[in-house]
Amino acid sequence: MSEPIIPTRTLFIVCGALLLLTALTIGAYFMDLGILHTPVALAIAGAKAVLILLFFMHLRYSSGLTRIVLLAGLLWLGILILGTMDDALTRGWVLGTAP
Amino acid sequence: MAESSLRPMNALGDTHSVETSGAHAAPDLQFENLEQQHATRVFGMWIFLVTELMLFGALFLMYTVYRAFYPAAFAEGSRHLDLALGGINTAVLIVSSLCIALAIHAARTSAKRSQLALWLLAAAVLGIVFMVIKGYEYFLHYQNGEMPVFNWTLTGAGAGHVQLFFWLYFAMTGVHAIHLSIGIALVGIMILRALLGNFKPNAYTPLEMTGLYWHFVDIIWIFLLPLLYLIAR
Amino acid sequence: MSAITLPRQDTYLNINYGIRSWLLTTDHKRIAILYLVSITLMFVIGGAAATMMRIELFTPASDLVDAATYNKLFTMHGIVMIFFFLVPSIPAILGNFILPLMLGARDLAFPRINLLSWYIYMLGAGVTLWALIAGGVDTGWTFYTPYSTASPTHVVAATVGVFIAGFSSILTGLNFIVTTHKLRAPGMTWFRLPLFVWSLYATSLILVLATPVLAITLVLVAVERLFHVGIFDPALGGDPLLYQHLFWFYSHPAVYIMVLPAMGVVSEIIPTFAHKGLFGYKVVAISSIAIAVLGFLVWGHHMFVSGMSLHAALMFSAFSYLVAIPSAIKVFNWTSSLYKGSISYDTPMLYALGFIGLFTIGGLTGLYLAALGVNVHVTDTYFIVAHFHYIMVGGSVMGYFGGLHYWWPKMTGRMYPEKWGRAAAIIIFIGFNATFFPQFILGFEGMPRRYAAYPPEFQFLNMLSSLGAVLLGIGYILPALYLIPSLWFGKQAGPNPWDATGLEWKTSSPPPANNFEKIPVVTTGPYHYPGKQDKVG
After folding, report:
1. Angle at which helices C28-56 and C111-134 cross, to 10°
2. Which of B56, B142, C60, C523 counts the most CB atoms within 10 A of its CB?
3. What's the topology of domain B34-229?
4. Which residue numbers of A have CB closer than 8 Å to B's CBs?
């Protein structure tokens, strides 16, 4: 309740930036980026997520605790993906069972 | 609930930092003041969003594994999706998120009830627009024989792998759509409560929680766009 | 209501009466009692299945039940005991009752959500029981694909039931985390929290982070089963091992969901009955969190023979050794806490000491299993069965019974007959070891798990195990026989029968509806015994 009220101007600017980034990611789709294709698309998505988190979900003004909660969630998602991919990507090394 | 009203208020009742009178002026039994109650509920919502993140996370993992196994099939599957509809839907959700943020702004700056309700209504309508477009996309997939089980016509080498892509596409967008429907229902309730005058500049916790949920669902879609629609030309 | 007349005192039990006052309550203490009744029922059902299995295994031939029925029995035993007894038992019963009292709070942060999670639990239990009664499930509690999508039994209903119950876990975990962060009494800093709170907090982290993964995975299995094609279908190029990863990402940490709260109970009981502070309080507290975190890095050790990559197997094996460190720290600290204590061997203490011994055996055999080579040899034998029963029954259930006896006077205001309590604890300890120690040997000799029949040379040890199970069953029935009468005939307990230190003992027994006359102000650590060796505070 003590969090500051974000002015409407900021909210409109953030929304504009989000729409711009959406256009950018679709534009990047039509460019020839080679293997950078997916990393660029995910980086843009990440930037959009950060904007929403910081301003719409006002993480920028929240306590450190809220940020830790979010980071913990991302860390655990990372553990899930890394642990499984460790298996999925190296299965062919020894056993020759990679699909 | 029936029982909590029977519990006597206690010595702590003296320390309430109540600033306004009205239906929401007194915190629940377990809280010392409204500030603590608000902070606790919002924190609870964040924890809930983390569980949601892990729920979608399992789907993201399945996606990652199968895309690593079958990159060509995923690129092929992605080409079957309609980028124009996906792009429009992204814009729709982003603007709906703005409407939610503006609604909370209106609630906190003691604007008129009608203004708050209108912003919420705009968000709900945009949410419904998203669902209609998504439904149309599903319909197109059905017509084109790209819907596993119900109408699947792709055959030949690698068709099974493309079907895995579509299983994931329907699972991820389907779970997202369920979440958005819940979000629309919540916003609908918020509209009613706004019209009833339930919210005040220092009593808007349910709005805040609904907003967090809505923005989270928006973020999930923002990742679904590149993962499903933008794999490769 | 009482046989011994007592002066009228306002408690959470007598503030109002009637079925509505229970089914619509938002009082965490009453919800704990609701859980106690329903979880005990599930324990009886799971125990009945186990009894049938042990009777069948008394003789080598499959004579009492056929192989198909036997498959359904062990599946039922596993599903009911894990998802509906072990996971919720200590958090939802003892945690629900004690956590707000320990924090000096009047309730959990979200009392209505707390009640909701009980209803969700009941719904999940109902759906699962329906599946088990309507014809059963034969996949084992793990629901491994592709068999679970092809089995002719009621897999969909069982997975949906477990899915529903998962939300009950998530909501309980969420409630505990938020309550611990936001509702601590004045002066209750993090390092003044009792260790039970620390372990419930660590448990809740796992509940919140792991359960959603299992939930969505089970939904996809149910979908695949309904349509006979789906995301794990090998015919499409789907990967059944992916299912195993997702399943064990939940289910290995779930082992810590089951055992961490029991560790917390033991950490409460030991200082109380040794009458001194707990040695190395901070290390024990942090080790709970360490177990919760490291527990997420080891799930692959359930898949060593599944065809997982060797690289991943090596990584998961190495991490599995790591998780032993915080567990061992706890064991060493508990035993060190006994040193120079004035120990009294009351019933809860017997359970706590039993826990330490049995958990140590379970943990050490876990280290064998973390070793790749040994694991390949004993996978799917009775060695595994014995190992995880030492953790789950020797650990979690001993902790649960210890905690139930420890806090029974607080929950009911009555003492149980101490002699009966001690007798039951000793019978359970002996019965447990007689049941499961022979299974280590059976497993090492190569007897595979999940079979209704076995070669005659295994019969002696199986008979021993079955006889032990009878003793164990008697031990589990005994507490019901003296705890329930104690509600009417037990001696009045008073606020603090054990001379313990936690905030929960500073209010009357049973506590008033809003827990404390006046919210206490905390000025010392949790195990503050002035004049004794005092490491905390």
Report:
1. 20
2. B56
3. Four Helix Bundle (Hemerythrin (Met), subunit A) (1.20.120)
4. 1-2, 5-6, 8, 11-12, 14-15, 18-19, 22, 25-26, 29-30, 37-38, 41-42, 44-45, 48-49, 52-53, 55-57, 65-66, 69-70, 72-74, 76-77, 80-81, 84-85, 88-89, 99
